[in-house]
Amino acid sequence: MKPINQTVEHLKPSGIRKYFDLASSMEGVISLGVGEPDFDTPWHICNAAVESFHEGKTHYTANRGLLTLRQEIARYSKERFGLDYDPEKEIVVTVGGSEGVDLAFRTLINPGDEVIVLDPNYVAYEPAILMAGGKPVYITLSQENDFKLLPEDLARAITPKTKAIMLNFPSNPTGGTMSREDYAKLVPILKESEIYIISDEIYAELTFDGEFVSPASFDEIKDQVIIINGFSKAFAMTGWRLGYLLSSAPLSKMMTKVHQFIIMSAPTAAQIAAIEALENGIPDILTMRKEYEQRRNLICARLNRMGLKTNVPKGTFYVFPNITSTGLSSDEFCVQLLESKKVAVVPGTAFGEHGEGHVRMSYATSLDNIKEAMNRLEEFLTELELKRQAELNASVDEIAKEVVILAEEI
Ligand code: PMP
C-alpha cells in the first residue's frame, strides 16, 4: 500500500492515554489523571437543549454559529474580561476549543513557519502545528519563575521565521498564570515582532487568585491576538463540544472559511444550551470554582508537607508537583505509584521534554478522593524512602565486609 501522510504517521500518541489504559485495566484506582470537570452540566443548561428538540431546532445554523449565541458571547466577554468583539464579524463558534486550535494554525501557517510553544504545554498544540505544516520552537518554563513566560526568553525565541506564539494561561499542566504586569513586559516585543498570538483561555473562569488577564486586553496588540475559549471547563460541558474564537474581523473571516468547509456549523443543540449557560450559568461557575479552590488548597498543602515541592497554582484544576526528591523519573514515578498504590497521575513528560521531574495531578475529583489519594501517596513515599534506606544499609554492609576481608588479607 502507498504511504499515508508522513506527518500523521509520525505523530506520537498522547502520553496521557497510556496511563488511562493501564488504570482502566485495574480495580480500585483513584484517578488524578483526568482533564475534565467531575461536575455534570447544570440541569437548566441541559434542559434548554431538551426544549429545543421539542421545538424542532434540529437543523444547521449559520456557519459562524447562532447570532444570539454570538451576541451572548460578546456580552459575556465584555462583562467578565473587558474584551470587545463584534458578534457579526469577530466571533466564530467552534466544535470545542479543540477545533479553535486547529482553525487558528491552519489559517495562519505556511509550510516551514515557526510557532513558539511553551514547554511544558497542552498536548494538542504540537500535533496541530505539525499537521498545519509548521515547526514548533520551544521556550522552557521553570518552576522557579512560577511557570510564567519571561520577556527575555520570548525575545530570544523570535526569529524572522516566527509566525505565531501559542499561549495558554491559566496553564494546563502547570496551573501557571500571567498577571497584567507580566503581560505588559511582553507587549512591546510582541508588537514589534508582529507575530500572531494565539491565546487559549479555556481556563479563564478557573482563576482563583487575582483577575484573569487576556493579552487581547492590550490595545496595541489586540489585532494580533486570536482568543480560543469554550464551554467545556467553565460550565462543565466537555461532552457538548462547544467553543469559540475571538479575533480581528479579517482573521475571523479567514477562519470561518476553514470552519465552513470542515464543520459547516457547530452542533445546534449545544449552541442553544450555551446561550442558557451564558445567560443564567454564572452562579454555577462560581459554585464550581469555590469547590475547585478548596480542593487546590488541600492538595497543595498535602503535597508540600510530604516534601514534593508544589507551586500553588492560581488557576485551572491541575497541580504540577516536583518529584525529583524521590530519585525517580516522571515515568517511573507514575508507573510505580499506579502499580503499588493504585493512584493514577500523568508524567510531566507527556507535556514536553521539560516536564521531566514533575507529574500532573488533576483535582477535578471529590475532596474524599483527593484525601485518599494523598494518603496513598504518602505511604508510597514512605515505602520508597524505607527501600532506599535498606539499599543504602545493604551497600554499607557490603563495603564493611570487603574492608574486613581486605584487613584479613593484609
Ligand atoms: N485547551 C486546553 C489547555 C485544554 O486543557 C483543553 C481540554 N483538555 C482544550 C483546550 C480542549 O477543550 P475543548 O473541550 O473545548 O475542546
General description of the model:
By secondary structure, this protein is an alpha/beta fold. It folds into two domains: 6-40 and 283-396, Aspartate Aminotransferase, domain 1, CATH 3.90.1150; 43-281, Type I PLP-dependent aspartate aminotransferase-like (Major domain) (Aspartate Aminotransferase, domain 2, 3-Layer(aba) Sandwich). 46% of the residues lie in helices and 12% in strands. It has 13 helices and twelve strands. It has helices at 6-10, 17-24, 43-54, 67-81, 96-108, 125-131, 151-157, 180-193, 249-262, 268-280, 282-305, 330-341, 367-409; strands at residues 30-31, 91-94, 114-119, 135-140, 162-167, 196-200, 225-230, 243-246, 318-319, 343-344, 346-347, 359-362. The chain has a seven-stranded mixed β-sheet, with helices on both faces. The chain has a three-stranded antiparallel β-sheet with strand order 9-12-11. Strand 5 (162-167), helix 8 (180-193) and strand 6 form a beta-alpha-beta unit. Helix 4 runs parallel beside helix 10. The protein is globular. It starts with 5 loop residues before the first helix and ends with a helix. The model has no long low-confidence stretch (mean pLDDT 95). The protein binds 4'-deoxy-4'-aminopyridoxal-5'-phosphate. 4'-deoxy-4'-aminopyridoxal-5'-phosphate binds at residues 35, 96-98, 122, 168, 172, 200, 202, 230, 232, 238, 243.
